[in-house]
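During the no-cost extension, the postdoctoral fellow (Dr. R.K.) reprocessed legacy sequence entries with the updated structure-token encoder. One reprocessed record is reproduced below for audit purposes.
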Amino acid sequence: MPRSGQDARPTRPGSAHDGPGLVVTAPLAGTVVALEEVPDPVFSQEFVGPGLAIEPGADAAGVSTVVAPVSGTIGSLFPHAFALETAEGRTVLVHLGIDTVRLGGEGFQLHVEAGDRVEVGATLITWEPARVAALGLSTVCPVIALQGDPGLLASLVPPGTQVSAGEPVLTWS
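Re-encoded structure tokens follow.
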């Protein structure tokens, strides 16, 4: 939840400004999960940074669309994960499922390339969470303020909340 004294009403998602800081939007539709509930200590113990996770929903065809949670440049890009670098020097990491690197890209379709400049809400990846779950892997998706100070991150939505792709979920001051 926003810390006392913070304005949780973003004015421009995906960019830093004089308001609450960088607004990070949900990269996919689903249910918000507390980061400590993610079944991987790298994420649950915030080794790479603070954030939250989203248990994905899917459309009628079983596909989940992943969009840019902030405007920036695609840094690292894999079928199952990406890092998006903002003009302000912050990086947001999104990891689609846990241990999904083992799939070698199967079930994931990239719509961008490393180095591409994207605006918040741009389609980056489509994937099939049900296919990942059928293989016995977790589909929960950590959204991380890479190397961020936990004291500078505020959640705009509590765990258990249903969110749509593009909906503001975090501020990073």
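The chain is about 5% helix and 35% strand. Residues 49 and 149 are 7 Å apart (CA to CA). The remaining legacy entries will be reprocessed before the final report is submitted.
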